[in-house]
Amino acid sequence: SAAFLDALAPGPDLAPPDLPERGEAGPELGGAPTRVGQVFEVTVPGGDSTYHLLRADGLAPLTRTGAALVLGDPATQKDAYAGESPTARAVGADALRRHRATSDAGLP
């Protein structure tokens, strides 16, 4: 009911993270060039997929919702994917180990 919803405290607005470096060249991952702002999916055998955002300092973890927000952001398509439709690219866990970000602060 409306009374129930009115009783709930509002949470933070859902928005993709601000990436001033979006579109800059990133490291080679999985044998292919990358750009800051791209989303990567890591699947571990017997485990769930995890999502990661490539920032200037490396791959930072994203929630599934965070990945959807980044992939749906027009700036991501324009800058990180050169106008192409943004999708999460699969990479191995080894890429994550070698290119892990120093912090995941501020990510959804």
Automatic annotation (TrEMBL):
InterPro entries: T7SS_EccB, T7SS_EccB_R3. Residues 1-12 have a biased composition (Low complexity). Residues 1-34, 79-108 are annotated as: Disordered. Coiled coil: none annotated. This is Type VII secretion protein EccB. Pfam families: T7SS_ESX1_EccB. It comes from Streptomyces halstedii.
